[in-house]
Design brief:
The protein is of the alpha/beta class. It is built from 14 helices and 13 strands. The strands form three sheets. It has a six-stranded mixed sheet, with helices on both faces. The protein has a five-stranded mixed sheet with strand order 10-9-8-11-12. Helix 5 crosses helix 13, helix 8 packs across helix 11 and helix 11 packs across helix 12.
């Protein structure tokens, strides 16, 4: 395929937290040896309460009909976000080469020794393409899982691109609903896997304590004032996922709500501040233990760069710094990149590679039999 001088695309991200949509308008110049990019607009749109409740219900029930309805509604929400993103720019849909979407994962089942895994992604790519008149790339995990991999993490190849020159030996730690890391060595992505909970334990705990009135702990303010129940921390970290060897991935249905529900009574027996201090520390410790088990034995990173919603939780960052004192803990803001922008920008870059028919999923990280081109394209009209 002939490489164009530049590609203008939109990246869309709606993660496992189901709090809203991050949208970025970005121009890539992929013809260069080290492609450059320009972020031309970025915004976050909160999902309505009704959508968040709908998504939570579908994830819990796994109802087929409701899942397709959710996919339709998500395509409509994405369409609205795209038009809002373009309103304050000089561009319209005819100026966009493609849209790249992370989608909304309802269920992720990792592969076993004897059976491929699979991901159920509710996003209706064809509807989004029809509504926007823009080609849409999504379902990035499916090819890798067909080749025996985990289909995750997807973003390390983009993390190499975004951070590798400035921080060639670093851990890029994403803290969305689920946490995942990329280990960069000499600017190359050498290791990547899910670390366990990102924000999911903290968010669920505050929802329980507030009876749904609060969705998250802003900047970790409640956790900062609490006392940690270290016995409960140790019990939370007994899930077998934590000792599994990479490559590995997990799902909100595995390590998220259903697992945390086993500890609901014990968490509710604490004050809100103490419960949040406990699950926040458990989350930080799950990340630090992943470094101890799988990173420090073979690699020597100098920094941890945190992105995703968890990057705004100052208590979480302070706890992680305490647990890994030898590393400098920064957020992606150190490179003037908003923490909520990173995954959205990463999926846009995955879309560029797919559009150019270049591998964008690394088998050494996912466990598949070969590097592959992840992404399915829904075209807007006739070719």
């Amino acid at each position: 395929m002939v490489t164009p001088d530049s590609l203008r695309c939109i990246g869309l991200m709606s993660g496992t937290s189901a709090d809203g949509i991050d949208a970025v308008l970005v121009r890539f110049t992929p013809s260069q040896a080290q492609p450059s990019y320009t972020v031309e607009n970025f915004l976050h749109v909160d999902f309505p309460i009704a959508y968040r409740e709908q998504a939570a219900q579908v994830i819990e029930s796994q109802n087929l009909k409701e899942a397709f309805i959710l996919g339709r509604d998500l395509a409509q929400a994405y369409t609205s976000a795209i038009h809002t993103l373009l309103e304050s720019t000089a561009f319209d849909t005819d100026d966009i080469d493609f849209v790249a979407v992370s989608g909304h994962t309802l269920l992720h089942v990792p592969p076993t020794e004897h059976q491929n895994g699979f991901t159920i992604d509710t996003t209706d790519l064809s509807m989004l393409a029809a509504l926007t008149h823009i080609p849409v790339i999504g379902k990035f995990r499916q090819k890798d899982m067909a080749l025996g991999g985990h289909g995750a993490p997807l973003v390390p190849i983009a993390h190499r691109y975004l951070f590798g020159q400035t921080y060639p030996n670093a851990i890029i730690q994403n803290m969305g609903g689920i946490g995942n890391l990329t280990l960069l060595e000499n600017g190359q992505a050498m290791l990547g896997f899910d670390t366990g909970p990102g924000n999911t334990w903290m968010d669920q705990t505050i929802k329980w304590h507030s009876r749904g009135e609060k969705r998250y702990d802003p900047e970790g303010q409640y956790a900062r004032r609490g006392d940690i129940d270290h016995t409960l921390v140790e019990d939370l970290l007994r899930h077998p996922f934590f000792d599994a060897t990479p490559p590995k991935s997990t799902d909100i249905k595995d390590i998220g709500y259903p697992y945390l529900h086993l500890f609901k009574e014990r968490l509710l027996a604490h004050r809100l501040e103490d419960a949040l201090a406990t699950v926040t520390f458990a989350t930080a410790k799950s990340v630090a233990q992943a470094y101890d088990q799988w990173v420090f034995s073979s690699y020597n990173p100098t920094h941890v760069i945190v992105c995703g919603g968890g990057a705004f939780n100052q208590t979480l960052l302070a706890m992680l710094q305490e647990l890994v004192p030898a590393l400098g803990i920064e957020t992606s803001q150190v490179l003037h990149l908003h923490p909520s922008l990173i995954e959205t920008l990463s999926f846009a870059y995955l879309g560029v590679l797919c559009w150019q028919q270049q591998p964008n999923v690394l088998s050494r990280l996912t466990g598949s039999i070969q590097d592959n081109i992840g992404g399915e394209i829904a075209y807007a009209g006739s070719l």
